[in-house]
Recover the amino acids of this structure.
């Protein structure tokens, strides 16, 4: 999916020993949005925006080891081993030794000759790496200016972490002028370096440059056109996480040191086997207890009792992503954790006084088929006709932010209808739900509306799986604990025949070794992903577990 | 065992040819034996002995003599005895005897008194036909027809071969026979011997029988169309009705090209049902007509083509294309059988050819060599199947045990072709025909890699001796190594060979890919060459052949007397056209040293140019490169060797060159025009033709030609020149530069205009790769006098541009034009981050040389520490450490050093702080550095705590963030933590106000899971609780339970 931007110039930072001035270049193609203000809460802002940067660049997906060097070494070594194996007699041994010495000498000579070249090549690649580093960021952060706050949003490269930093206007002093709206800003790693220089003794001016919107001369060199081809899965992930915020969930509050302790455990150990989840044990009135698997280390949050009414146990994966919170521990007053359920997205809000930092995590770090979410986050919650939808949107845009109740009251509509309409907009990336203030806010992710229907499912089989589930065509025949995990067998009524998929969910709830007797699986095995029947069975199992 | 006496006897009588050998051997002291061997000559002999036990010498000699006498009395003769008959002679007598016998038999048959019991008459008739005895005709004509297919067929065939127009009547009768085979052969025969009228009628009839698409091109004499149509029908469309194929020879007398086309096509026709029987008819027709080319093509094809299907040893069926065909007999009888060309057919036809060739050879027919030649010409190196070795083990029971015996059989490259083998190796000591396998195997101990024997190996060497022209044909045309080997051996031994040595033969030999051919060619050349009256053609042949030795020989001969050769226009022209690169280089030297007469030169140029114009660009890329290189070589030589000849060359010559699709030719045209130096006379279309040429070099020459226009004309066309500078073609951009340089000398206004126009292009993206590079060169080489018109703004634009060439030019201009004193320091510092080392060094040098300014504008100067290049940063650190003094470093600056992001700069900052530390600023350092996000710096700050923060609650509270941050670090900064705890503990104990601030901090940190920290917290909190019970604290002291 192509995202087009046109920045007027590039973001500039002017820093001296007394002052830091940050002029963000906004996307001039969008309706003018600007903001000028001076920072009041320097350090907290510094730490928070650095955490946001960590999310922008984070990529925690599994990367296979680079083995080309090893392979080259192996190729060189193999004849030697072969020779060793062949050399039975001493005479041959000495001969081999002699030749080996010669070979060694030759190789040393070669290395000596080639060394300057290798050095120069490395230097060249390092140079390229540095020069082009900005190209790695997937999507520049989005800035939204609202009458009560300014917020920055970003989504990580690995399509799993969402970050949002909202700054109330108390964070700033001398707010000159602003125009509400959403825009992208030109973002670079140099900017991150400049953030690190924020100090209380330096005046720090944040400026989303309004001059960029002034009519410029035709010399188009002043503009910087950016075209970003975002993977659809990235956009889908972003929307899924945002729309997850609107769902009902458990909310718990953690003391900063609880997060410290959690990170402490993770930092001191490396998980080499599954399960790799966090288990939140919630029982009303009791301190929250978090178990870190696979070592089963219990962290008891003595100062954070669970205030909900029902006991529950929720498992969360992809916990290494929580490291982003590390810099926030000293500046945070508390952390509010929102858990949607096992394998579902989770949110961590750091209360920084007038600022709130929200870290949203999808169910797993890798959003591949084996961990496919067991909840269709982009499914329409309630059908609302488009006229009403438009009405709700226009009303919201008047105030930029409002709660569903107040909207319902103002428009004299049923609360559920308003919620349904807002949910649709959240899914389309036009509105976001503010967990902290519990209000809906206007935020257009892209200048043009996103094609929600295309984004909802990764492939037609996923769509069919949901269809099968909705039509009640899936029945679970057998659930059995096995060595690998839980084996689930089911029957799915097709148009002509019945299908009998079998899946195994391992301790990390990954789908392993699925089989099915449908044609798609017979022909492709798993090379093109699982068939709709396996997916439907998995979804049914997830639903089943929830109701039980 | 030692042989004392030996007798070797042989006996040839009728069909029998036997040997008998007797040995007298000494086996011990006075112990002798007499052994004998006997059997067919050449076969394995049987052994026996006359003395079961050894006997004394006298007795042994007696036995020996007795045996020898016994045998000689039976007719045996000793070997080496001159009485032994020679094979040839015996055959000779045989042939004449045969002839008279057969003729007499035929005569008897004509009279009706021939007794067929021993030899069927049809065979006798056939034999007469085979031998082509004209005397037999009369008898044959007299023999009555029998209505018996085999006999009538033989008779028609024999009449066709021996007969004359007189027998036409009889043949016409045979033509009426019901059996189609007889009728067909009779028609064929009639077409050979019939009268002119018969002939015409037959051709007409045949033409009518042909399909129209075939007939048309024959009648219209269009061989190409005929070939195309035939291949269309037979190979592309695969028509079922193919009978027209066997009709074609009948019209070949009137339209000889038909045979040519047919022979070209035959190697491609599939040997399959519907096709093969036509091929078979063609073979018979070829035999009948003695059409050796047709015969050779088909026979070689049979030798090379595997059977279409196999008839099994048992059963009447065949398995073909996944299908069983039962009742082969019935299948064959069908009009369109599904099977043809079985292995049996193939073997039969091979045997038949061998017999045919042997009979001809035996009869010393002069046709033999023609047949052999045409068969041999159909083999090529591509037919080599590779040498092979077969190992067999056999077991025999000897002395109570089984012994294994290993037999290696070797086969050479062409062993699978019985007919080829027969022609080349019938008398070879190294190959034997294994009849059952139908292959020529190596006769032990010979192995394929060993050299060939010196003796002649081919069948019927005498006949080859009489046919040197056949050998010459083979030498020149055969593409088969072994055929060439044979032909060379035979040609060397040929008594008439000298008559056939011509320059063409030598050239062809040298052009063959075989070293033996080259050797022979060189030998022949040397033997023929006469220095006094050198054969130009021969020398040219040597010089144009690809063999280096031959070229060297040719060059030597010419170098001996260059004048003689150079005076011959055709020789010089041939030399210049030579495709051999080395020869060409040599010829260039030769011709520059020995000038050709001007009158001759023009003619030679004309001739060579004509030759060049005839070159066509080949489609193949590699060949195109070769052709181009050749044309370039030739045209370069022309320009070099005839420097003056081109001044007068007119349009008629260079115009076609300009339009030629091969690159060197329009280039030659351009060079000719350049040499004529008369650009003004050329029209615009000519320039356009050059500039729009698809070849870079030609366009370059075009621009050069354009530059020959006088300055006045050029300045009028300055727009064109400017557009050349920005052309999409690099050579145009490059060639125009010297022209511009020349023009600028007298037209400074043009220079200013160019600078204004072209300079901005350097900081814009180039439209074509390489434009920046060429522009930069243009500025540097041609426009350097106009640099003063470039403003410093423009220079900075060049430096800030994204392109290397802009940087290069910018750097040069910066050094020449810009007074850095006038430049803002920010810009100079920015140079320190420039990609070009040269520019970074400009910044470094400026710093070195202007220390006072740097110190004055120190805040700006310190930005050099943030340069993106390591060398600039290193320089900056060195520079500031050396040049800045105590008074230059304000606390703000020192702190700003530490605030930088790069660790090494932070380190540098810390160093400088330590070095230039002043007590008065300590508090400032502590407070400011405490905000640093880096744990290193946090640790550094702990050093200041006791000195500047102790006993000062206000100051401590300012550092709230610092302490929270230090104590909340996750699994790091333990030293800083320890120090902080100790410091906080001490301070809190001193002052209750501090304690009131410390306690919440500890309370916040205390839930940590890190045991040491937690313990420390509890300990401190307890201490404080004890000391200040009034302060609120989460600690409750519980007395331990005592037992």
């Amino acid at each position: 999916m192509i995202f087009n931007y046109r920045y007027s110039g590039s973001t500039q930072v002017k820093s001296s020993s007394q002052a830091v001035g940050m002029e963000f270049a906004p996307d001039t193609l969008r309706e003018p949005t600007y903001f000028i203000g001076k920072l009041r809460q320097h350090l907290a802002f510094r730490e928070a925006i650095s955490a946001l940067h960590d999310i922008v660049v984070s990529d925690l997906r599994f990367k296979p080891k680079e083995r080309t060097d090893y392979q080259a070494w192996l190729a060189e070594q193999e004849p030697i081993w072969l020779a060793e194996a062949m050399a039975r007699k001493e005479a041959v041994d000495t001969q081999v030794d002699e030749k080996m010495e010669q070979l060694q000498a030759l190789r040393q000579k070669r290395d000596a000759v080639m060394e300057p070249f290798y050095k120069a090549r490395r230097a060249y690649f390092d140079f390229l790496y540095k020069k082009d580093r900005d190209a790695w960021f997937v999507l520049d952060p989005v800035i939204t200016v609202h009458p009560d706050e300014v917020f920055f949003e970003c989504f990580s490269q690995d399509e799993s972490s969402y970050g949002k930093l909202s700054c109330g206007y108390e964070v700033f002093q001398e707010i000159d002028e602003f125009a509400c709206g959403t825009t992208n800003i030109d973002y670079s790693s140099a900017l991150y370096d400049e953030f690190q220089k924020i100090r209380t003794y330096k005046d720090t001016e944040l400026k989303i440059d309004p001059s960029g919107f002034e009519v410029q001369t035709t010399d188009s060199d002043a503009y910087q056109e950016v075209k970003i081809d975002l993977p659809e899965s990235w956009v889908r992930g972003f929307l899924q996480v945002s729309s997850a915020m609107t769902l009902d969930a458990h909310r718990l509050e953690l003391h900063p040191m609880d997060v410290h302790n959690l990170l402490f455990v993770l930092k001191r150990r490396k998980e080499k086997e599954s399960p790799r989840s966090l288990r939140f044990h919630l029982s009303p009135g009791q301190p929250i207890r978090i178990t870190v698997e696979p070592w089963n280390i219990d962290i008891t949050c003595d100062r954070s009792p669970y205030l909900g009414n029902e006991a529950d146990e929720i498992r969360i994966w992809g916990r290494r992503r929580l490291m982003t919170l590390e810099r926030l521990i000293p500046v945070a007053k508390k952390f509010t954790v929102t858990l949607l359920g096992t394998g579902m997205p989770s949110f961590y809000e750091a209360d920084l006084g007038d600022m709130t930092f929200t870290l949203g995590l999808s169910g797993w770090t890798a959003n591949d088929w084996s961990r496919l979410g067991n909840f269709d986050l982009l499914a329409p919650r309630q059908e609302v006709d488009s006229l009403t939808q438009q009405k709700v949107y226009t009303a919201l845009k008047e105030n930029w932010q409002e709660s569903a109740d107040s909207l319902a009251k103002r428009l004299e509509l049923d609360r559920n209808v308003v919620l349904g309409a807002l949910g649709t907009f959240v899914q389309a990336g036009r509105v976001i739900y503010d967990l902290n203030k519990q209000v809906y806010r206007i935020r257009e992710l892209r200048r043009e509306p996103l094609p929600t229907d295309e984004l909802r499912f990764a492939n037609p089989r996923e769509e069919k799986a949901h269809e099968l589930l909705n039509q009640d065509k899936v029945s679970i025949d057998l659930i059995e604990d096995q060595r690998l995990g839980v084996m689930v067998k089911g029957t799915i009524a097709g148009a002509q025949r019945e299908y009998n998929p079998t899946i195994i969910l391992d301790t990390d709830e990954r789908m392993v070794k699925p089989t099915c007797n449908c044609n798609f699986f017979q022909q492709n095995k798993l090379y093109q992903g699982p068939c709709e029947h396996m997916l439907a069975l998995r979804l049914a199992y997830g639903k089943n577990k929830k109701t039980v | 065992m030692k042989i004392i006496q030996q007798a070797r006897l042989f006996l040839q009588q009728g069909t029998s040819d036997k040997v008998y050998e007797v040995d007298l051997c000494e086996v011990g002291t006075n112990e002798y034996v007499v052994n004998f061997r006997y059997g067919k000559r050449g076969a394995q002999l049987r052994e026996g002995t006359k003395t079961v036990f050894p006997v004394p010498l006298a007795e042994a000699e007696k036995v020996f003599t007795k045996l020898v006498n016994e045998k000689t009395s039976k007719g045996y003769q000793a070997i080496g005895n001159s009485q032994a008959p020679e094979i040839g002679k015996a055959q000779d007598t045989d042939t004449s005897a045969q002839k008279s016998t057969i003729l007499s038999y035929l005569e008897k048959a004509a009279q009706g008194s021939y007794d067929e019991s021993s030899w069927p008459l049809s065979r006798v008739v056939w034999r007469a036909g085979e031998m082509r005895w004209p005397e037999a005709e009369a008898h044959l004509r007299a023999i009555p027809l029998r209505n018996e297919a085999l006999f009538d067929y033989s008779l028609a065939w024999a009449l066709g071969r021996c007969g004359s127009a007189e027998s036409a009547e009889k043949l016409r009768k045979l033509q009426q026979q019901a059996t189609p085979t007889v009728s067909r052969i009779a028609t064929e025969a009639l077409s050979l011997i019939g009268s002119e009228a018969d002939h015409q009628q037959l051709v007409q009839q045949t033409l009518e029988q042909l399909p129209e698409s075939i007939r048309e091109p024959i009648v219209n004499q269009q061989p190409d169309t005929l070939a195309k149509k035939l291949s269309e029908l037979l190979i592309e469309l695969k028509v079922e009705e193919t009978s027209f194929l066997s009709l074609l020879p009948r019209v070949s007398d009137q339209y000889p090209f038909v045979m040519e086309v047919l022979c070209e096509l035959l190697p491609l026709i599939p040997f399959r049902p519907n096709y093969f029987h036509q091929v078979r008819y063609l073979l018979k027709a070829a035999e009948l007509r003695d059409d050796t080319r047709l015969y050779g093509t088909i026979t070689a094809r049979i030798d090379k083509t595997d059977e279409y299907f196999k008839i099994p040893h048992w059963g009447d069926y065949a398995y073909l294309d996944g299908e069983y065909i039962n009742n082969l007999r019935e299948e064959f009888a069908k009009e369109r059988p599904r099977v043809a060309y079985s292995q049996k057919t193939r073997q039969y036809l091979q045997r038949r050819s061998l017999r045919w060739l042997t009979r001809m050879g035996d009869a010393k027919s002069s046709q033999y060599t023609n047949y052999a030649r045409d068969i041999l010409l159909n083999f090529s190196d591509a037919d080599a199947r590779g040498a092979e070795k077969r190992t067999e083990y056999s077991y025999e029971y000897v002395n109570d045990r089984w012994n294994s015996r290993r037999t290696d059989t070797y086969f050479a490259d062409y062993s699978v072709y019985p007919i080829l083998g027969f022609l080349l190796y019938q008398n070879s000591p190294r190959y034997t025909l294994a009849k059952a396998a139908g292959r020529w195997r190596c006769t032990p101990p010979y192995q394929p890699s060993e050299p060939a024997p010196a003796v002649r190996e081919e069948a019927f060497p005498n006949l080859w001796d009489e046919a040197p022209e056949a050998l010459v044909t083979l030498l020149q045309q055969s593409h088969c190594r072994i055929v060439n080997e044979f032909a060379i051996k035979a040609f060397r031994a040929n008594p008439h060979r000298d008559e056939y040595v011509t320059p063409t033969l030598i050239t062809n030999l040298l052009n063959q890919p075989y070293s033996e051919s080259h050797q022979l060619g060189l030998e022949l050349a040397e033997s023929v060459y006469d220095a006094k009256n050198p054969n130009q053609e021969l020398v040219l042949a040597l010089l144009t052949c690809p063999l280096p030795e031959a070229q060297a020989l040719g060059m030597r001969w010419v170098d001996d007397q260059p004048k003689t050769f150079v005076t011959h226009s055709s020789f010089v022209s041939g030399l210049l056209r030579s495709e051999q690169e080395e020869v060409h280089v040599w010829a260039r030297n030769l011709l520059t040293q020995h000038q050709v007469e001007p009158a001759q030169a023009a003619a030679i140029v004309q001739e060579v140019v004509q030759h060049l114009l005839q070159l066509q660009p080949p489609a193949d890329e590699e060949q195109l490169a070769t052709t181009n290189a050749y044309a370039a070589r030739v045209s370069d030589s022309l320009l070099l060797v005839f420097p003056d000849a081109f001044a007068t060359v007119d349009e008629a010559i260079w115009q076609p060159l300009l339009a030629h699709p091969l690159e060197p030719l329009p280039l030659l045209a351009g060079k000719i025009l350049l040499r004529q130096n008369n650009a003004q006379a050329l029209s615009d279309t000519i320039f356009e033709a050059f500039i729009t040429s698809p070849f870079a070099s030609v366009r370059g020459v075009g621009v050069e030609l354009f530059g020959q226009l006088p300055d006045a004309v050029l300045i009028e066309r300055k727009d064109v020149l400017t557009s050349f500078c920005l052309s999409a073609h690099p050579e145009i951009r490059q060639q125009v530069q010297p022209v511009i340089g020349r023009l600028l000398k007298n037209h400074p206004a043009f220079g200013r205009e160019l600078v204004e126009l072209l300079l901005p292009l350097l900081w814009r993206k180039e439209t074509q790769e390489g434009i920046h590079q060429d522009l930069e060169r243009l500025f540097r080489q041609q426009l350097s006098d106009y640099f003063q018109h470039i403003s410093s703004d423009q220079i900075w634009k060049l430096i800030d541009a994204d392109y290397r060439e802009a940087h290069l030019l910018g750097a040069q201009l910066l050094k020449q034009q810009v007074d850095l004193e006038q430049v803002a320091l920010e810009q100079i510092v920015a140079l320190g981050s420039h990609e070009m080392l040269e520019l970074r060094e400009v910044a470094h040098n400026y710093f070195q040389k202007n220390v006072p300014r740097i110190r004055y504008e120190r805040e700006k100067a310190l930005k050099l520490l943030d340069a993106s290049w390591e060398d600039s940063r290193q320089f900056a650190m060195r520079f500031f450490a050396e040049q800045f003094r105590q008074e230059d470093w304000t606390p703000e600056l020192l702190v700003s050093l530490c605030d930088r992001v790069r660790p090494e700069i932070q380190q540098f900052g810390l160093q400088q702080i330590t070095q230039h530390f002043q007590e008065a600023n300590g508090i400032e350092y502590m407070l400011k550095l405490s905000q640093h996000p880096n744990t290193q710096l946090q640790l550094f700050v702990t050093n200041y705590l006791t000195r500047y923060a102790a006993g000062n609650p206000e100051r401590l509270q300012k550092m709230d963030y610092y302490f929270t941050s230090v104590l909340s670090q996750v699994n790091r900064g333990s030293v800083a933590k320890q120090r902080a705890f100790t410091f906080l503990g001490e301070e809190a104990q001193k002052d209750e106000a501090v304690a009131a601030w410390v306690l919440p901090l500890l309370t916040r940190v205390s839930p940590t899971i890190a045991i040491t920290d937690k313990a420390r917290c509890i300990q401190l909190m307890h201490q404080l609780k004890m000391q200040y019970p009034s302060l609120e604290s989460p600690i409750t002291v519980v007395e331990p339970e005592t037992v």
Summary: Chain A touches chain B through 36 residues (CB under 8 Å).
